[in-house]
Design brief:
Blueprint lengths: L11 H9 L4 E3 L10 E8 L4 E9 L7 E8 L2 H10 L8
Antiparallel strand pairs: 1-2, 2-3, 3-4
């Protein structure tokens, strides 16, 4: 994960925790993206003790992978989506 372009807009260590969340939800393409080149991830950051939204942008064909573009605390709706999709009773988040 390359955070070079997004580190001024988020907390890379917290976003990395959200990416590592085994219960994370990925929407690719991001339904709110104008370019359709980005993905939206909802994942839990243990350091922040919150669900985060992390925006990832596809790198080009020669460099498959992602750039971390942005991240923020999830709003009530995104947190509810995360919890509802992971309502197996184990996470408690």
């Amino acid at each position: 994960m390359d955070w070079t372009h997004g580190e001024a807009h988020m907390w890379p260590s917290h976003a990395s925790e959200a990416l590592a969340d085994t219960d994370a939800l990925v929407f690719d393409p991001d339904p709110k993206s104008r370019s359709a080149r980005s993905a939206r991830l909802l994942g839990y950051s243990t350091s922040r003790q919150r669900v985060l939204v992390v925006i990832l942008v596809h790198q080009d064909d020669q460099n498959p992978g992602w750039w971390g573009a942005n991240g923020w605390d999830a709003n009530t709706a995104d947190t509810a989506t995360y919890r509802n999709e992971n309502s197996n009773g184990e996470s408690g988040r």
